């Protein structure tokens, strides 16, 4: 006969062995109980004290190694007793049912002695053991029950007999169970009901198991619950029997052939009252709870290794789970979660994880409710920025249980190193981060909200304390759905290391503010000019009057100089949703950064190659006319002399000097920029390239004269000098002229 309640073993101690200590007055049968358990027979000769007994895990019901320790007042001192008490997980106080003095010592000596050696908040569970029940025909429970009611640390009471082996194995099983499956955290015997912490934990378990969110557990949900907790389903008749038991005791425990929350809690109360609290503990531990009814760190934060330069994303199975979670709580089927629906979803959380800023981070409907796409986007954002928090949230939702996975880590995909993506010139990532940089009030917030499809009118309704520095939404690039994450970087003189790390940079300036572009140009030169991170300049508030920027060159020339796309005009002051063209451009640049970088280099290399070709053509012409053809008459009237005089004329020399001066000026600028990118040294690189250009210039302008510019040379305008088509025409014409002149000379020479 027994009753029960007690204190839990700490979660850290659960993995260790169970240590049982037997104490009591002399000659009550402590040693006999241990020897009868081991030998399965009553010993004829009983020593003063039994040696410590270790029972292997494979022969115990709970599969935990168990140590049984005897105490002898004749052989051990008080200090040794105190040490044994401090090492024990559970203590059995043994008394003889036929000895009233030994029963009185339970309350007058042993319980006070044990409690003095333990903290009030962490009392050791106690088992009262009434030995020698074979000597009497009555029970001692009437005397023991008042003691149990007085001391809540008493877990249970067992009457047994070492002589006829009655309840010997049960005694040690209950002692072991008092450690592994304590009643204390679950049940209050005075009130005869479960404790609030237990009700809260079981309520969360019920809501997770109620997969259709109809407030009841139907047969399929009950069978799933039974299988994941106890590895076996319930037969149809067994299910009906369970429901009938609930119907018999409470009227609203079963509804529409399903078990309600009240019925679910009643069943567990019944288990505890009937001494089957291991059933409740099995359920609690399957859903991640420790003996203090807190979710364990191992459950909430499973191990997940993330190498450097790698990001974290949700995989396909995680999105399916989140989709089912959204559908479960979208009761009105409007593809959006109302505040009440969102509150219902977060009932399985110990706190509300999302603040009001989330509504300005992801897409919402006209009423400000988070849509299905916004719901998935917020989870994607959390996974990318703080994967540990994402694992925690998935744990609260019961991801590993409902999907029957080992842990929430199976929901996460760790992308490969970005360097590998650059080498292979393709990426497997689905989430790309864009840092939005610009002066305060330049329109960065407008860019973020435009990604969510909100025009200026909707943006004005956002409260200052609800603003978000992030925005995330899907963007389609070449038919592929990708997530673009925008991060508003606050204005500062220098960016931190974390503010530089991204996949693409969006530099925003206000076209109506003359001082706005200078900040973008300075940040670009400080942090991004020599990096491989692609950059896009956005001319925000393009609906306003554009003013000249107070910078050495215009934004357009700045982009051309640094081989970037031209500034993208953008405004969110539209009647409908703002244009998403810049977001497609940003995502494309983030997906293919190597193409953007290679284009910058190829333009620089192409200009250098064209200059070199022009130089070779000029050297060829001079060589052809000066070295291979020689005038035989020096009359200055033949075709050769006319051509030679024309080549040496001031007109041609002036045109040649002007053309190559313009070309080399462009070469100096382009080569200097290219050198800065490769050598990461702006001033030193420019100087180096200028010296290189000077050597080219010297080789081209050998002994050239700077005569006056004739009327024909004035037709070569500055616009023509900057046109690549003009250089091709000029070089081609000079070549044709030389070939025709040489042909005419040979024809005349034959006639002579």
Automatic annotation (TrEMBL):
Cell location: Mitochondrion outer membrane
Domain Miro: 15-181, 429-592
GO CC terms, sorted: mitochondrial outer membrane
Lipid bilayer topology: Single-pass type IV membrane protein
Catalytic activity: UTP + H2O = UDP + phosphate + H(+); ATP + H2O = ADP + phosphate + H(+); GTP + H2O = GDP + phosphate + H(+)
InterPro entries: EF-hand-dom_pair, EF_Hand_1_Ca_BS, EF_hand_assoc_1, EF_hand_assoc_2, EF_hand_dom, Miro-EF-hand_domain, MIRO_dom, P-loop_NTPase
One BP term from GO: mitochondrial outer membrane permeabilization
Taxonomic superkingdom: Eukaryota
Protein keywords: Calcium, GTP-binding, Hydrolase, Membrane, Metal-binding, Mitochondrion, Mitochondrion outer membrane, Nucleotide-binding, Repeat, Transmembrane, Transmembrane helix
CDD domains xrefs: Miro1, Miro2
Entry GO MF terms: calcium ion binding; GTP binding; GTPase activity
Major location category of this protein: mitochondrion
Transmembrane feature ranges: 726-745
UniProt domain EF-hand: residue ranges: 317-352
NCBIfam families assigned to the protein according to its UniProt record, in alphabetical order: small_GTP (TIGR00231)
Family: Belongs to the mitochondrial Rho GTPase family.
Subunit structure: Homodimer. Interacts with the kinesin-binding proteins TRAK1/OIP106 and TRAK2/GRIF1, forming a link between mitochondria and the trafficking apparatus of the microtubules. Interacts with RAP1GDS1. Interacts with ARMCX1. Found in a complex with KIF5B, OGT, RHOT2 and TRAK1.
Function: Atypical mitochondrial nucleoside-triphosphatase (NTPase) involved in mitochondrial trafficking. Probably involved in control of anterograde transport of mitochondria and their subcellular distribution. Promotes mitochondrial fission during high calcium conditions. Can hydrolyze GTP, ATP and UTP.
Record's protein name: Ras homolog gene family member T1
Protein source organism: Propithecus coquereli
